[in-house]
Amino acid sequence: MTVRHHIGDDLLLSYAAGTLDEASSLLVATHLALCPHCRARAAAADALGGEMLDALPAAAVTPELWQNVLARTQDQPETPPAILATALRPRSDIVIPEPLRSYLGTDLAGLRWTRLAPRVQQITIDIPGCRPRARMLRFEAGTRVLEHGHSGRELTLVLHGSLCDGAAVMRRGDVAETDEGTEHQPQAGPDGDCICLAVTDAPLRFKSRFARLLQPWFGI
């Protein structure tokens, strides 16, 4: 397996800095479990951040500052260990790697899919307090997604099979990042079902009027 489509620098730096939302962090961490190249980039970003902190001049710590730090720490939601711990020993012999498998509670065989459209199934991943939405999507081989645009950012990580988007063909481990300026109609490849993890921070803009009418029920 050779990953050819990687996460962008902005996304990777936000992940390394701990400022990325949990749903997007889940996708990035799962990609890192499959991509040695981006694991090396993430390690370099962590090292750079450490050097920048070391270069800052030492400041006097007053009792008031210490109390403010403690208060902010207590106010922050706890980040799940699965997000903090990037896979150190990635597995390529399973479809769903960590940390995604822990969020789903099972591997591929145990997933319970719900029908989203003909030849398309989904599983929503509940992440309390997180605005972007994460979901698993399963397209039967050859299925063409309804043509749509975007009101925000969409991240798609291919876990099994392939996904064709214009001239790009994405396979296991590849990531596609689209934004408001993108209109497209991806299609699952002919080599079996395509299974993806998708994260969106705003509703899609479907071209089909029928799809727009059903969109509130689909939550996509």
From TrEMBL:
Residues 134-199 form the ChrR-like cupin domain. It comes from Rhodopseudomonas palustris (strain ATCC BAA-98 / CGA009). Residues 10-39 form the Putative zinc-finger domain. Pfam families: Cupin_7 (PF12973), zf-HC2 (PF13490). The gene is ChrR. The lineage of its organism: Bacteria, Pseudomonadati, Pseudomonadota, Alphaproteobacteria, Hyphomicrobiales. This is ChrR family anti-sigma-E factor.
